[in-house]
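#struct-help
A.M.: can someone run this one for me? Single chain, 280 residues.
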Amino acid sequence: MGIVLKSKMAVHTINFKFIFIVIIMAIASDVIASENQKGEVGLSEGILCQKDNIINTIPEVYDPINSKYGIDVSEFQGKIHWDTVFDQCVDFIFVRASEGITIQDKFYGENMTALIEKELFSGPYHFYVIGDDPEKQISNFTSQIKSYRPPNLAPVVDIEETSFVYTPKPDKKEIQDAFLKALKLVEEQTGCAPIVYTNLTFANKYLDNQLLAKYKLWLADYNKTPVTPDAWMDRGYSIHQYKTFNDFPGINSDSGKLDLNRSIIRDSSFEEEFSCEYSF
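D.P.: on it. Structure tokens below:
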């Protein structure tokens, strides 16, 4: 009887030891996998895929499953070290091409060429000047785009408070009519429906025409929970500019400052939502 009990106790001891070893091995495996994942570089990880992750400093907007993360640049960022930027796992980039009727960004060609060669998602944007002729503005925009290899993301027209450069200001109807004409011209001349970049305050004050909701909205809003402008209330915004970041790797301006953006992917892929084949 005593021998049998001793034998059973030995079996139980062995079983407990085996279970303990299995648990320890499983925990160790999870830790190793987690550490490896932190060090990986890939688009699925957002802008920074390394352990020091810029995106993860703003967890309330970080959603790599339903969003892609990107930046927008212009000549104000200076000459950009693109190889360094590419290491940061940027999913998409918008590049300023032009402003008003005469200004063309001096780094557009260099920037767009570098992005196209790397086969990254990249698109041009025009800074719209209220009061300048819309036909001449869009001619300035498209002539710059045509001078280089075509982008692969839809074009953007940026309109905001600093778009006012003339006094007195036009009335709201004049602003809306001219801006709608500019958007239509972009679509006709590029074959791509443009994206409107603006912010909540400006949109609700000057862009409350429902006809504008035909176009996707890129909303600049640095609050944790962005508010959709009235005209786009049913459609929602498609890109959210959520933070200005200093000392971004590869940016040569004094502060290295640029804006961080995320796309909102709803019923389709990023490519289906934002890519475009230009007609020239």
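A.M.: thanks! The CA atoms of residues 112 and 240 lie 22 Å apart.
D.P.: also worth noting: The two ends are 93 Å apart (CA to CA).
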